[in-house]
Amino acid sequence: MSSNGKVEKVIIIGSGPAGWTAALYAARANLSPLVFAGRPKTVPTTILPGGQLMMTTEVENYPGFPEGVTGPKLMSYFEQQAMRFDTRIVTDKGMTPDVSNADDGHSYSYHDCKRVDLSKRPFLVVGEDDTEYHAHSVIIATGATANWLGLDNEKRLAMSGGGVSACAVCDGALPVFRDKVLGVVGGGDSAVEEASYLTKFASKVVMIHRRDQLRASKIMAQRAKDNPKIEFAWNKTVSDVLGDDMITGVTLKDTKTGEQSTMELGGLFMAIGHTPATEFLEGQLQLDEKKYIKLADPYRSTTSVEGVFGAGDCVDSVYRQAVTAAGMGCKAAIDAERWLADQGVE
Asked: Which of 103, 117, 152, 170 is the catalytic position?
C-alpha cells in the first residue's frame, strides 16, 4: 500500500524534544514536515509519544519555566508549537494537524515507523499499517530508553512520580529527594556519576551492585569509595520496590546466598544503561558498538547516509537531556534545509 505518491521534503521519525524541535524549525522553513510520533509500547516499560519526559512528573531544569513544569505538559507545549505551523502527524485518522486536546489526550492514535529503506533516494519510510511514504530527507529522532529492572512497582512509582527515576541530573535536586537516603542501582561509570551527583542533595547514597566490586574505571571507582556520603551494598540485586504513593525502600537479594533483606530508601535511581531506539536502522545507517547513530561530523547532524540526519538521545550517549536534544533537533532541521536547497528541493 502506498500513500498519495507525494515525495515529502522531510520525514521526522520521533516526537521527543529533538523530534518536535526539528519539526518546528522545518515547518518554519516551509518544509512541511511529516512526523511519525510513535506509539506506546513496552520494552520493558511504557514508551509514550513525547519521549522519556512523558514519565517525568516535575521538570525544573528546562529553561523558560522558572516554577518548573511537568514532563507531559512540556511535551504538549513542544507539540502544539510545532503544529502552529505546517507540521503534519501520521495517525489512524490520516495526517491530522489538530492538537487542540493535546493536554487531555488525543481522539486519535499516532502511528509508528515500521522500517526504512535508506539505500536509494527518495528514501522509503514504511508506517505500521504498511503504508509507504517517500522523502527527499529523513531526520531520525527516536531517542533512547533507560534500562529498568522490570518490576511492577518500580514502573508504577516511576510513572507516578513516586521517587523512582532513571536520571539523577533530571530529578535529583527535587525537594522530595533532599536529605534522604537514596539508592543507585548499577556499578559502572554512569552509576558513579549519578551517585556522586546525588550526594549534593542526599543525606547518604547507597550504590547497589550485583558484584563485589564496581565495573567503573579505576579513577571513577576510587572517587566513589573516597566520598564519605557513598556507601555500597555489594552482591545485591533489587527484587522488589516498596511503597504505595512514594517509595519507602527495596527488597534486596544476595547474589551469593540468595538471602533476602530490606533497605529503607527515600528514592531509587536506575543507572544500568540506556538502549537507543535504533533497531529498525540495522543495515541502514552506521551505528556504534552500543547501537547509537554515528555522526559523520560530530559538530553537525549528518549521518553515514547523505540526506539522513540524526538528533537527540538516539545519537547522544553522553548528555541525554531535554535541552541538548532540542538543540540537536534544531541542528538537524537546519542541516536538512540546507542540504535540500543544495539538491534543488524547495
From this structure: 170
